What does this fold into?
Amino acid sequence: MAVAEIKKMDIVPQSVFAQRDHDRLLRRPEVENLTGLSRSTIYDWMKRGDFPQPVKLGARLVAWRESDIVVWLQSREPRTK
It folds into this structure.
């Protein structure tokens, strides 16, 4: 094992590496379904920096890392009445 890999493992928990190895890419309809947000809201919030940026897969093709969406959802405060 390389020294850089050992140092990286000391800093970041092993579960983070395992999560990245198995991270799914979600297309926009699935992101809309998971978040309950419309397409226009997703892109507006991305522009403001309030929503995760997608991964560019091609000239006109993007997807979001499932882990980014899960972390974003967990960071949202529940609404109170």
Residues 5-9 have pLDDT under 50 and may be disordered.
